[in-house]
Amino acid sequence: MTESRRPLASRNTGWAQRIARWLSGTSLTPNRISQGSVLFAAIAFLAFWTSTYTGTALAGALFVLAALACQFRLLCNLFDGMVAVEGGKSEPDGPFWNEAPDRAADLLILTGAGVAIGNLALGLAAAAMAIATAYIRELGRAEGLGSDFTGPFAKPQRMAAVTAGAGLGALEVWGLGTQYALLAALWITALGTGLTVLRRSARMIAALKER
User: Fold this and answer.
1) What does the pLDDT average to over 73-90?
2) CA 162 to CA 44: how far, in whole Å?
3) Is the peptide bond between 152 and the residue preceding it cis, with omega within 30 degrees of 0?
4) How do residues 3-27 score in pLDDT, each as one tens digit?
5) Do 38 and 12 contact (CB within 8 A), yes or no?
6) Is the entire prediction scored with pTM above 0.90?
7) What own/partner pairs with CB < 8 Å and gap ≥ 24 does 50-54 have?
């Protein structure tokens, strides 16, 4: 439980480092990039929500848009830290913008997915579990234990599941063979994230007892 940043293999790839260097040379700040993640999450929410009022062809396109918005949200989460740390553009209020937009983004995307499948309660449950994982992580850090990014369903896994569910859901509404993809993805996310809350809680309790 000693990581200060989420361990991401993509952070060390050539393409990510090149883009981060380019972003560092622009007027964009890490805080603005963090705020951009909420914009993409809002796009995902609106795409999911609007899909319930449209015809089949447009609904499938909106699912694809939501899937892309989820991935752009993750890119914002990748590059805000790289521009701040590797690019040397960290800001005094950076810790707030590094965390708060993520909670809003999880809420928007997961509740939006719930709306799209007609199960708002499931979307809200998944969002609550996502926010709880961050709460447990930050509580551990406040207690001097470091940040616990363990899974099995941390943010990257949640977004991967919703992205896959939305992509396959587009095929479903277009009648190409898949069934209940987004529903399954949201159940997996809710249950997997709930398990993550329990695992991080158990690890923190054990660490506190050992201290």
Assistant:
1) 94
2) 10
3) yes
4) 577 888 889 899 999 999 999 999 9
5) no
6) yes
7) 51/116, 51/173, 52/115, 52/116, 52/118
